[in-house]
Amino acid sequence: MTNNKLSLDGLKFEATKIEVANNILNITLNRPEKKNAMNNVMVNEVNYALAYAKQERDIRVVVIGSTGDIFCAGADLTRNTSNSNVPKIAGSDDISIAIRHLYKPVICKIQGSVLAGALLMVTNSTHAIATEEALFCAPEIKRGLWPFMVMAGLFRVMPRRAGLDFIMRGGFIDSSKAEQWGLINESVPKEQLDNTVNNIANELASLAPGTMQIGLEAYQKQDGMDFDEALPYLKEQIAKCFESKDAKEGIAAFLEKRNPNWD
Q1: In a 3-state reduction of DSSP, which class is residue 174?
Q2: What is the Cβ-side half-sphere exposure of residue 235, based on CA atoms within 13 angstroms?
């Protein structure tokens, strides 16, 4: 893939559905017959959609959802023939990195159970909302394996002992426990999932998009710094933020007692 501007025009997404409306890009995992397991086609399509969302200022929020009864069953290592013509972007093989480096709100809309590698999406998104019926599991230990990649995001959202117990025993936890342990933000009745996610997405999309990017990028970068290193870095980001288009518009709107216009 060259460095040309990305476009959705003429692309056939086979393993996902991509929709853009009201400054929100919806990525829907669409292999319900395979429990939405992530094959190479799905991974490529999701990464392309995330790269497109990063490129487009008008896209302010990404929502990742699924069709069927299972949110995602993890990785599907089989390679099948595909009619997808979505280009591959060099170096974009890892969904978790693509989500973290998007620097925009990403909401996982979890209508069903989340297994194994699917936790990469949930733990690295900024928000995760699940139905009360959803279950969560990292079953690798029961197959003689270990969820190595999942740990990077998991221990940034779950307490250490809770996270260790979760991956050491390989059992299911329900959405109530997942909420208690910080794996998700909230569990809601199934019939409330769409409205809950839509309300959060629309609220986030109404806020300063440039500032949101500056803030989320700073959040991700300072996360790996020592305190003495993080503080001067964040001081630099404050100065950058004050000079931004969004800050100037937000302050002007406040002084003029009007709603800001985030063009």
Answers
A1: strand
A2: 6
pLDDT tens sequence across 93-149: 789 999 999 999 999 999 999 999 999 999 999 999 999 999 999 999 999 999 999
In contact, 152 and 121? CB cutoff 8 Å: no
State if pTM tops 0.85. yes
Long-range own/partner contacts, residues 186-192 (CB < 8 A, 24 or more apart): 186/129, 186/130, 187/129, 187/130, 187/131, 187/132, 187/134, 188/129, 188/130, 188/131, 188/132, 189/131, 189/132, 190/111, 190/131, 190/132, 190/133
Q: Which residues contact 3 (CB under 8 A, 6 or more apart)?
A: none
The token pair that represents 144 in the structure block = 């003689």
pLDDT band at 3 (very low <50, low <70, confident <90, very high): low
Edge-to-edge order in the sheet of strand 16-21: 16-21, 24-29, 61-66, 106-110, 127-131, 186-188
Supply the DSSP symbol for 23: T
Q: pLDDT tens digits for 26-62? A: 999 999 999 999 999 999 999 999 999 999 999 999 9
Q: What residues contact 33, with CB distance under 8 A and at least 6 apart?
A: 68
Q: How far is CA 62 from CA 6, 114, 158, 159, in A?
A: 16, 19, 23, 26
- How large is the angle between the packed helices 209-222 and 227-242, nearest 10 degrees? 170
Residue 78 pLDDT level (bands cut at 50, 70, 90): confident
C-beta neighbour count of 63 within 10 angstroms: 23
